[in-house]
Automatic annotation (TrEMBL):
This is Putative NAD kinase 1. The keyword ATP-binding does not apply. One of its GO terms (biological process) is NAD+ metabolic process. InterPro entries: ATP-NAD_kinase_PpnK-typ_C, NAD/diacylglycerol_kinase_sf. It comes from Vitis vinifera. The gene is Os01g0957000. Keywords: Kinase, Transferase. GO terms for molecular function: NAD+ kinase activity. PANTHER family: NAD KINASE (PTHR20275:SF0). The keyword Kinase applies. Pfam families: NAD_kinase_C (PF20143).
Amino acid sequence: MNSSGLSSYPSNFINLQVPGILFTPICPHSLSFRPLILPEHVTLRVQVPFNSRGHAWASFDGKDRRQLAPGDALVVSMAPCPVPTACQVDSTSDFLRSIHDGLHWNLRKTQSFEGPRDL
C-alpha cells in the first residue's frame, strides 16, 4: 500500500532506504493486530484455513479485489530489484518533506484570540 493509503490506517511510515516489508492489515477481525515491519529476506504467507466458514478478500492498492477460497494463500516477498526513485535533495529529506507537505505533519496552525482584551 502506498503512504497515502496508510495515512487512513493506524500504521507506520518507512523511509525508502529501510529494506523491509511493511504489512498493514486493513479491517482486521482482531483488535490486537498491529502493523508488522519485517526484514527484507522474509516471505510472508497468509492462508485462508481449509475449515474456514467463508471466503476472504484481498485487494491491492485498493483496486483489483480478488476472492480467496479456503486453502488459498497470498504470498508476499521483496522484489529482487528495487524500483529506482529520483530525489530532489536526498531520499531522507524528500521523504520527510513529502510527509510534512502532504499530511501537514508536525504543523501547528496559528489560532486567533477571540476573547476579551482587558480583564
